[in-house]
From TrEMBL:
Protein name: Pentacotripeptide-repeat region of PRORP domain-containing protein
UniProt cross-references to InterPro entries, sorted A to Z: PPR-containing_protein, TPR-like_helical_dom_sf
PANTHER family the UniProt entry points to: MEMBRANE-ASSOCIATED SALT-INDUCIBLE PROTEIN-LIKE, PENTACOTRIPEPTIDE-REPEAT REGION OF PRORP DOMAIN-CONTAINING PROTEIN
Taxonomic superkingdom: Eukaryota
Disordered: annotated span: 43-74
């Protein structure tokens, strides 16, 4: 095999690709450069990343200084910044680029440049102000790519100062990333380890970034060390880590070990356990167990204070157990709807002669009942989530005694409207509708009328239990003005949705008689589908009259529904179709809410073909091209041609289901980047005329006339 260096044996005929010879991945020196005695040009490695120099670089600055053009007030003329960039630009980025001595010198130089830059920033005086400098952390990143020389320790003072700067960052996410960045540099040396407090900050940063396994390993490795063996701080920190990881079994093991060793578990850890089990759901025994332990700790406060006073090494300042911890637990129980256990907490607080903030507790109950009403309206998506949550209404019998207990503590809340609102929503969401109506009557007597949201929740609960008469009486009371709130469209749509779901024509007529036209899009869509499914075509096409007369401008989804039902009506009972499809399309062309949609144009063209108005069907395609600059797609053209062939044969036209969709894709006017090829409308018209044996010139003249009329009434 010839060596790439034997250039004398290679003739000029083998020189290709600009005079460069490639031999098994090696690049030889071109002959013309060898003959001239020139060396091969070596490209800069990818590890070299040259950052821009401020003010044109060092040479230009020298010329400016010589000419007396130096600007002392230029903020970019920061020597620390220049030296840092010089270190970044001129030093290799990988150990494979140069030898061992070169790497060691690079590490020393980069470290010195970073230290000089920190001095110029005056980080000792203003760590918060200059701690966000991006070049500072960029320089640290370049330093972290190299290792210190053998036998020498890294500049720990420099990195510890950067660690303190990273800890005072305001943004939590940026703070965690920078603490991790400095900590990785420090812990890359096997002989370096931070004190427990700073190491906990590093472990917390690892947890925030996502290195949870590494963080737990680091915590476990220090568990038996001398500096933490006599302190409960490290155990507390480990419990919090495992709680954040939702490993409550391991967290309880550490807490039991902590209790055996120190005879005490801090109240804040107990509160964390209670919050964890409350939010997980289906752990009532664990919640009650930890609360009993917290209550006993609060009652034996003197004993606990002795344990805290005799502790040899207490790295964290502990809050002595008090009734404030029970108040935190009470608020969490009210949030998670643990009504029965909340009553026990209130009794324990009364035994301790603690002040109970009833107004604050009432606000918490109000928020909780709002959340309950939202959950009861929506279907659960995941079965595991449904099984894990506490069942709504499982402790409904304990809700009223809880409110009675709060009223007995502070009777003045009877004059508060929020009490009755939360009471009403809570009873309605838990299915206690008759009790909720009694609360409603009490609100009316006290002239604290319910809001629309409260009535919506109560009527929804009644309809879910199929108590139509009770719900309708509430609606009549709202219409008569007995209640402060008047019925809105949302309330009427509740009754209409229920009657449509039950397929009861009498209930639908009863509800429609109370709704004043014009109907909104939600009401109109429900009525259109109901009348079509029950084959009430007279009532169905009465809804088209205000739309054709332009007394009502429906939304885009409703336009799709209107044309789709006309097409389905022609397939089901053609003689029942009454609306003028040309006038309906003219109303759609003049609509301000309609969005350009190929599907709606397709439904309109199909409906006109089924009605026998072939010129109007082709006029839809002409209108698309002249008004919206949209040519019919191959699928649309093929569908019309196939429909014309079926009409000629007398066979039944069959279409897809075409269910209405709110998320239907629309296109803008002038849209040309279609996924399918297009075809001119004239070609489609020629195909339809030849199939149905129509006069082609006369049909095209009618098409252009109809399209021009629609265009004049357009947007």
């Amino acid at each position: 095999m010839k060596s790439p260096k034997d250039n004398d044996k290679i003739n000029e005929e083998t020189m290709t690709l600009g005079g460069r010879i490639f031999w098994r991945g090696y690049r030889s020196v071109p002959l013309w450069r060898k003959e001239l005695g020139l060396k091969e040009k070596v490209k800069r490695e990818k590890s070299f990343k040259r950052a821009p120099y401020p003010n044109g670089g060092p040479r230009r600055r020298q010329r400016r200084r010589a000419g007396g053009e130096e600007n002392d007030n230029d903020p970019t003329m920061d020597y620390g910044y220049e030296w840092l960039l010089a270190a970044v630009n001129n030093m290799p980025g990988a150990a494979s680029s140069v030898g061992r001595k070169g790497v060691e010198s690079a590490y020393q130089w980069r470290t010195r440049m970073l230290e000089e830059y920190m001095k110029n920033l005056e980080l000792d005086k203003n760590p918060r102000e200059h701690g966000g400098d991006p070049y500072l952390w960029k320089g640290l990143r370049y330093v972290s790519k190299l290792r210190p020389p053998k036998g020498e320790s890294p500049p720990l003072g420099l990195f510890l100062q950067l660690f303190e700067v990273a800890k005072v960052q305001e943004d939590q996410r940026r703070r965690s990333y920078r603490i991790k960045q400095v900590g990785d540099v420090l812990y890359s040396n096997e002989n370096v380890r931070l004190d427990p407090v700073n190491e906990s900050a590093y472990i917390d940063a690892l947890f925030m970034v996502g290195s949870k396994y590494r963080a737990l390993q680091l915590w476990q490795s220090r568990l038996g060390k001398r500096d933490v063996v006599e302190s409960s701080y490290w155990h507390e920190f480990g419990v919090l880590l495992y709680i954040r990881r939702f490993d409550w079994r391991r967290a309880e093991e550490i807490s039991q070990d902590m209790e055996k060793k120190f005879g005490y578990v801090p109240p804040k850890l107990m509160i964390h356990f209670i919050k964890l089990y409350c939010r997980l759901g289906s752990y009532d025994e664990q919640v009650e167990g930890w609360y009993r332990k917290l209550r006993d700790t609060v009652k034996s406060r003197k004993k606990v204070m002795k344990i805290l006073s005799t502790a040899k090494s207490q790295t964290a300042v502990e809050d002595p157990p008090s009734s404030s911890h029970l108040l935190v637990v009470l608020e969490e129980l009210l949030k998670q709807n643990y009504w029965k256990l909340a009553q026990k907490v209130i009794k324990d607080l009364q035994d301790l002669d603690a002040e109970i903030p009833v107004i604050q507790m009432l606000e918490t109950i109000d928020k909780s009942t709002k959340r309950l009403s939202i959950i009861s309206k929506n279907k659960r998506r995941r079965r595991s989530f449904e099984e894990g949550r506490p069942k709504i209404g499982a402790e409904s019998s304990d809700f009223v005694p809880l409110l009675s207990m709060l009223i007995s503590i502070n009777p003045d809340i009877l004059n508060s409207a929020s009490l009755y609102q939360s009471w009403l929503r809570g009873l309605a969401s838990m299915g206690l509708t008759q009790n909720a109506i009694q609360v409603l009557d009490a609100m009316v007597k006290r002239r604290n009328g319910p809001s629309i949201d409260d009535m919506f929740a109560l009527i929804q609960a009644l309809l879910n239990k199929h108590e139509w008469d009770s719900a309708w009486r509430l609606l009549e009371r709202m219409e008569s003005g007995e209640l402060a709130s008047q019925p809105s469209t949302r309330i009427y749509n509740q009754f209409l949705r229920y009657s449509v779901r039950m397929e009861d024509c009498q209930l639908v007529d009863q509800t429609v008689s109370h709704i004043e036209p014009p109907y909104n899009d939600t009401t109109l869509n429900m009525l259109l589908l109901f009348y079509f499914n029950t084959r009430q075509f007279n009532k169905l096409f009465e809804l088209y009259t205000p739309v054709i007369n332009r007394d009502h401008d429906p939304g885009h989804t409703t336009w799709r529904q209107l044309w789709l039902l006309i097409r389905r009506s022609y397939q089901t009972k053609p003689t029942a179709v009454r609306p003028d499809h040309r006038e309906l399309f003219a109303a759609m062309a003049a609509s301000q809410k309609y969005k350009t949609s190929l599907h709606v144009y397709e439904y309109a063209a199909h409906s006109m073909m089924l009605a026998g108005d072939y010129a109007a069907a082709c006029a839809v395609l002409c209108y698309m091209e002249t008004k919206n600059d949209l040519n019919p797609t191959i699928i649309l053209a093929t569908g019309l041609a196939d429909l014309a062939l079926k009409l000629k044969r007398g066979s039944k036209a069959v279409f897809g289901p075409g269910a209405a969709s709110v998320n239907e894709a629309t296109v803008e006017s002038g849209h040309t980047a279609l996924a399918e090829p297009t075809i001119p409308w004239e070609s489609v018209c020629d195909s339809i005329c030849s199939t149905l044996e129509l006069d082609n010139p006369q049909t095209k003249a009618q098409v252009e006339q109809i399209a021009s009329q629609w265009k004049t009434v357009g947007k």
